[in-house]
Design a protein that fits this description.
The chain has helices at residues 3-27, 64-70, 77-85, 91-107, 129-135, and strands at residues 31-36, 44-48, 51-60, 116-122, 149-153, 162-166. By secondary structure, it is an alpha/beta fold. It has one domain (3-166). A six-stranded mixed β-sheet has the order 1-2-3-4-5-6, with helices on both faces. The radius of gyration is 16 Å and the shape is globular.
Length: 167
């Protein structure tokens, strides 16, 4: 396994744990024991109130240069310049576009699973739970997607909780 693949798995597991902690705290319904799956299945599996539940995990960064910066990658001078030129006054549009892009891409996938939830973890510190909730009415969840529920962990550390996007 490459270091990048290992990092991806670690990020997915951390996102799943954060989601599960908030889910259980909010609902009082036990959710336990996670393990990583092969590509034909969603990323992580667990037990929700004793029944198997699969979680597909995605991370919301914004743009590719932002993702590289958030993940601590070495940035070229050109990439640093791109970040500096971003119009931070249009954060709502950028958040909405990035989130809708993830939802559209994930809606095209199929899984060998009976129950799949999509969990998106917001990794961009410029976007908050309040921003996500304010834009909920504009989020485009494509029809025909494979997810029973769609949730977002509102910040990278999970401090501000989770927001249900679907249903």
């Amino acid at each position: 396994m490459t270091p990048a693949e290992q990092e991806k798995i670690e990020l997915e597991h951390e996102a799943a744990r954060l989601f599960m902690r908030h889910w259980e705290r909010n609902t009082g319904v036990p959710i336990r024991h996670i393990w990583h799956n092969r590509p034909t299945k969603p990323d992580v599996s667990c037990f929700l109130d004793g029944e198997r539940l699969d979680l597909e995990i995605a991370h919301l960064y914004g743009t590719e240069p932002e993702a590289m910066a958030i993940l601590g990658r070495d940035l070229s001078a050109k990439t640093r310049e791109e970040l500096a030129l971003m119009d931070h006054d249009r954060q709502d549009d950028r958040l909405l576009n990035a989130l809708n892009r993830i939802l559209a891409a994930k809606a095209q996938k199929t899984y060998k699973s009976d129950r799949v939830w999509l969990v998106i973890r917001n990794a961009n510190s410029l976007w908050t739970k309040d921003d996500i909730e304010a834009l909920q009415h504009r989020i485009e969840v494509p029809g025909g997607h494979p997810f029973e529920q769609i949730w977002i962990v509102a910040d990278m550390k999970g401090d501000s909780g989770i927001v249900q996007l679907y249903p």
